[in-house]
Automatic annotation (TrEMBL):
This is Site-specific recombinase XerD. It holds the Pfam family Phage_int_SAM_3. Transmembrane segments: none annotated. InterPro entries: CB, DNA_brk_join_enz, Integrase-like_cat_sf, Integrase_catalytic, Integrase_recombinase_N, Integrase_SAM-like_N, Tyrosine_recombinase_XerCD. It comes from the Bacteria. Residues 175-380 form the Tyr recombinase domain. PROSITE patterns: CB, TYR_RECOMBINASE. The keyword Glycosyltransferase does not apply.
Length: 396
């Protein structure tokens, strides 16, 4: 086996390895172009030599795939195995696999990865708009996934360039955040009277805390502190068709948090706890929850088994129809909580921590509507402070 390094540009080198024989007894050659960093030629050559050693190891271990022969489908399998499955949450992997199988593999699967050009990406987006009748917001999901996959191909030195970055993403409209205002909340509270305690509890706790639905469904009684009126978030429940309902770590490190709760919300939670304990006694041997009550999930089925994560959402949707209330999703109770707190004057840093966002920019981006409204209130307040009450009235 022999290996050589050929300089192709300031930071570009071509690696060549000769190993074994092919058809006709000819020596097999493997080539790969790389880009390296280094302030001096000696430093860059040293990095190239390291890459040559890795290249040889790949070939000897039968792990090298000739870029000119690598199809998008083959690369997809490699990307899922080497990046997605070891690093991403199960739900994210499921969504990526769905996008790939539904439209990306049928379109790109047969194509050689290094032959996919910006024009092919554009054709794909046009096909999605024409045949799939997808909105630009939906197409953006495909764009982000393609960009990430090709970025990794460049990083792994399978490709020298990412064709997706040369394509303008589809223009999207920022979805308007839906929420309940104070009048809507008042109607909701009245409509909840007489409804099943566990669903009333799920709605009020979510609106009071701003929990994500998965976080709510991941709550166990050991996370509830009735003495200090707090709830601890350290896990979330999700459902996937292939896995069923499972418990995972929260979305981000910042999602691990302890939330102070209003006392009325804790009262309804206490009533729900009492009903859950009675349910356990009534079930007897049919109880499928934990013998230690503290280890049981707060929201369960009739026999103590963990509730499907989407059940409160489905119940809430049916409830709003039944009561003729303004339609919002269960997740938008979280938006309602955040919007009301902004309007009440809670600062963004405190709100971001309460919601479990990884940074305040996420909070600012999602709740810009509420901040504009709060800013108008602030302007009116400053008018009152500076010029006295009734300024607008006096001007008429």
């Amino acid at each position: 086996m022999t290996g050589s390094i050929e300089k192709r540009g300031e930071n570009s080198y071509r690696l060549t390895v000769s190993m074994g024989t092919g058809s006709g007894g000819k020596r097999k050659r493997y080539r790969k172009t790389i880009r390296v960093q280094g302030k001096t030629e000696a430093a860059r050559m040293k990095e190239a030599e390291k890459e040559l050693a890795k290249f040889v190891a790949e070939i000897e271990g039968d792990n090298f795939i000739e870029p000119s022969r690598l199809t998008f489908k083959s690369y997809t399998n490699k990307w899922l195995d080497d990046y997605a499955r070891p690093n991403l949450a199960p739900k994210t992997i499921y969504e990526y696999e769905r996008l790939l199988e539904l439209r990306m593999l049928p379109f790109f699967g047969h194509m050689k990865l290094n032959k996919i050009k910006p024009v092919h990406i554009l054709d794909f987006y046009k096909a999605l708009q024409r045949e799939g009748k997808l909105s630009n917001n939906s197409i953006m999901h495909y764009h982000r996934l393609l960009r990430k996959m090709f970025n990794d191909a460049v990083k792994w030195q399978i490709l020298s360039d990412n064709p997706v970055v040369r394509v303008d993403p589809p223009k999207t409209e920022k979805p308007r955040v839906q929420y309940y205002d104070e009048e809507d909340i008042d109607k909701l509270m009245k409509a909840l009277e007489g409804e099943a305690t566990k669903y009333v509890c799920a709605i009020l706790v979510t609106m009071a805390s701003g929990f994500r639905l998965g976080e709510l469904m991941g709550l166990q009684w050991k996370h509830v502190d009735f003495e200090n009126n707090t709830i601890k978030i350290e896990q979330a429940n999700q459902y996937l068709p292939k896995e069923g309902t499972f418990t995972k770590e929260p979305k981000t490190d910042e999602s691990n948090r302890i939330i102070a709760m209003p006392e009325p919300a804790m009262r309804i939670l206490k009533i729900h706890e009492k009903e859950e304990k009675e349910k356990r006694l009534n079930c007897g041997e049919k109880w499928e929850g934990d013998d230690n009550f503290e280890e049981n999930f707060v929201f369960t089925q009739w026999n103590g088994k963990v509730m499907h994560p989407s059940t409160p959402s489905k119940w809430f949707n049916d409830f709003l129809k039944r009561k003729g209330l303004k339609k919002i999703t269960f997740h938008q109770l979280r938006h309602t909580s955040a919007t009301m707190l902004i309007n009440a004057g809670l600062n963004i840093r405190a709100l971001s921590a309460r919601l479990g966002h990884s940074n305040t920019s996420t909070t600012l981006n999602i709740y810009s509507h509420a901040l504009k409204s709060a800013d108008k209130v602030a302007a009116d307040k400053m008018e009152e402070i500076m010029f006295g009450k009734g300024t607008k009235k006096d001007a008429k």
